[in-house]
Design brief:
It is a single chain. The chain has one domain. The protein is mostly helical. Helices cover 35% and strands 0% of the residues. The protein starts with a helix and ends in a 22-residue tail after the last helix. The longest helix has 10 residues.
Length: 43
């Protein structure tokens, strides 16, 4: 299992950290099965 720091570093490398940070619960946000609660562009 990855540490929170590793997860955030990987998200930064994928240019996703700032996007994830906009969620109310940040990295703890549940996206639903297969990301069905997210718009196509967010996946």
């Amino acid at each position: 299992m990855k540490s929170q720091e590793e997860i955030e570093t990987i998200a930064q490398m994928a240019n996703a950290h700032s996007f994830i940070s906009t969620f109310q619960d940040g990295y703890e946000t549940e996206c639903g099965e297969r990301g069905v609660q997210m718009a196509g562009g967010q996946k």
